[in-house]
Design a protein that fits this description.
alpha+beta, three-stranded antiparallel sheet, about 25% helix
Amino acid sequence: MSEFPPPGFVPTESAVPGIEVYMPAPEEAESIPDVVDFKCPQCRATTAYSVADGGLKCAHCGYYEPPAKPIVGKGAEEFEFTVETVKAAAVAYAHGWGEARKELQCQNCGARATLPPGRLTYTCPFCGSNRVLQQDAPQDSLRPRFLIPFQVEMEGCRSLVQTWLGSSWMTPKALRDMAGVANFAGVYVPFWTFDAVTTANWEAEVGHQETERYYDHHDKQWKTRTETIWRRESGSVREGFDDLLVAGTARLSKVLLERVQDYDTRALVLYDPKYLAGFMAQAYDVPLEVAWQSGRETMRASTRLACRKQASTSQIRNFKMALNFHEESWRYILTPLYISVYRYEDEAYQVMVNGQSGEVAGQRPVDWPKVWLAIAGMLAPGVFLGVLGLLLLVLGPVGVAALVIAFIALIVGGIFAVSTFQKAKGMDDV
């Protein structure tokens, strides 16, 4: 007698009383523990992620656990961008961080970030304020499916910022020493990635310059004139977008973040709470739909530029474009970022370092005396020529020549007097 119910079938609701009905068992989603206790198995101290090789390392007893998650890169799963799949993905995604974490809330800038277990901080890493509150981190937001691990270590981060601060002649010299003592916070920040293909048909009037030669009967001579001739042109464009990054947080400077977000998604790995050991992390506060609208605007602008480049000249008017989006998909990921807020002369300045590539962006004060001296140096030749021209008008060539000779004699006499004084005082080596 065969087994009943067959393997792989489970009971389901029956519309007829007394009749048992079975259905194929639903496929089980990948099992991800809700919360993990991230402690060293030898000494029970809190362990930390090792940037050097991606494993786990205990700073107390030396225990080491090698990395377990392989790189998935561009093969990381994506969801189609439709109402149905977005809702399905929201259900399929796990929620929370996968470990118990504390949440830091800044009362000054409004930023929120989660802290690793056992870590206490009383300063906001985003604005430097000490007006912060801590509570248990909520576990209701979507859990990222993938992340890019940190690859730049903290000491390397300080060196990069020190070089960056000293790279501009306009910044105060004292800033170079400040980078070595600046406090950097390693934070995983949320990003949405979007793929899409755009197709566009365009038409416009394109201007062409035409020159003709004609005889001017009034002046009795041949002349040339240039006219703009407008012609209708049209074309079509197909653009592909792969892993367009849109920030999932509105609490960081958009300008600075765009300068450092050159993340390489070929380094994506499956999310695991172990990667967050020792680091802060942010949940997204920019919803998927809002991020997608921003991504679409970026794609629209890029496609529009590609259409205009097809025109035979850059002189265009009455431009029209019909745009369509195809093959749209998205992911929710975390990316590594170092943030530091330093103070100089009672002003706060923020610096960001890409935790994967080492790209630096930030704010830095200006040494205004240096700037004004540079401006004066650039303007000096013009001022000198202007004064010289004015003297020529007032004194004439002979008077100006006499004035210049007197000025040179004054300088030579001054040098001679200083030299004589130094010799008299035995100061030849000064």
